[in-house]
User: What shape does this take?
Amino acid sequence: MKKVGITTTIPQEIIWASGNIPVDLNNIFIESPDREKFLARAYKDGYPRTSCPWIAGIYGAVVEGGVGKSAVGRCRLGGIDALIVVTQGDCSNTHALAETLEDVGIRIIPFAYPYDGDAKLLEGEMRHLAKKLGAKWENVLDWFEKLEPVRKLARRVDDLTWLENKTTGRENHRWLVAASDFEGDIKTYSKNLSGLINEAETRKPLE
Assistant: This one.
């Protein structure tokens, strides 16, 4: 399985359907104790000091191999084999990131969210991405169904936060942000999240 980087939320079932693993580079960068090192690498390679630090940090994380360890101790995946770049619907600085990473040999795969939200255009973009990654459309639809139980767990954490007041904002943020790529390991993510939910459901509501 190859690792496919993303810089914003995309239909990740397309990546799983292609037999690859999604890696949210935002989380790799910000969770790593080496994030200052990633920034330094970007500046060394020519990123202006006035450029967006987030974009520069993602660049550094990719070039340095992207190995990071978060506060909860999970070790993230190493270097990526390709990067999906959202050319419409994401930060405009992402274009510069794509160009500089392409210069160092990273395969760039474009994806766009239609400005007007046209459903047919969006499906066309999704089908095009699936083709680029070598995923059959029927497999993408199967993976949509496979991921629904995991997404229900994430929604349960959200309900426990704002409806029942039993999970904290920190817990909510940590697990919902990680749902962008399920930390590259759906089974482990689901197991850990289920554990949190089971424990939280026994709590008294927070004051």
Notes: The longest helix spans residues 137-162. The beta strands are 3-6, 21-24, 82-88, 107-112. Confidence is low (pLDDT under 50) at residues 67-77.
